[in-house]
Write a structure and sequence with these properties.
There is one protein chain. Helix content is 70%, strand content 0%. The protein is built from six helices and no strands. Helix 2 crosses helix 3, helix 3 packs antiparallel against helix 5 and helix 5 runs antiparallel to helix 6. The two termini are 31 Å apart.
Length: 173
């Protein structure tokens, strides 16, 4: 039972993180929009680098990319929250029912991994050469986030066992 509770609680914490990041990006839109704009325009990468043909210098592109990031964060948070609630509701259920409750965790975790690993490490970090920027490099944070997501997914994916009856056996008199 304790491991099931840990899975649900860690999933809920991850959901809170994703939802809070999405909320912060909406409320403090301009701060992280500037980040997206600089990364996509590649205006702080090494001068004269051979990758500049990849730069996006259109405001519509910046806004669409930022909207996709926020949507990915929010949807992953919602899926993770649904998974946490589903697992909590089935804490004492048979193993097969608890396993089925994990499906939203897998969807939310996979989407969160795509946002922070694929979006920030692969696309921003390598394709748009974010690693070259001293001021607008989010790779370290993205790596921490993606590894946290991966850790929770690994824990949640551990197979369930039937919960043993904790009542002591009754002795005949």
């Amino acid at each position: 039972m304790e491991l099931r509770l840990a899975k649900a609680m860690m999933t809920a914490a991850l959901a809170a993180f994703c939802l809070l990041v999405a909320y912060d990006n909406l409320v403090d839109y301009e701060t992280n929009y500037a980040f997206v704009r600089h990364v996509l325009s590649m205006d702080t990468t090494f001068p004269g680098n051979a990758l500049m043909h990849r730069a996006i210098i259109d405001e519509r592109g910046w806004r669409m990319a930022y909207a996709a990031i926020i949507a990915g964060e929010a949807v992953s948070g919602l899926f993770l929250a649904l998974g946490a609630v589903a697992m909590l509701a089935r804490l004492a259920a048979p193993a097969a029912r608890f396993e089925r409750a994990k499906r939203f965790v897998y969807l939310g975790g996979a989407l969160a991994f795509l946002v922070w690993f694929f979006g920030f490490m692969v696309v921003a970090g390598e394709y748009f050469a974010m690693w070259q920027s001293k001021d607008w490099n989010g790779q370290a944070a993205a790596f921490r986030f993606s590894m946290t997501v991966l850790g929770v997914l690994i824990l949640v994916a551990l197979p369930e066992r039937e919960i043993a009856d904790t009542e002591p056996p009754t002795q005949p008199r």
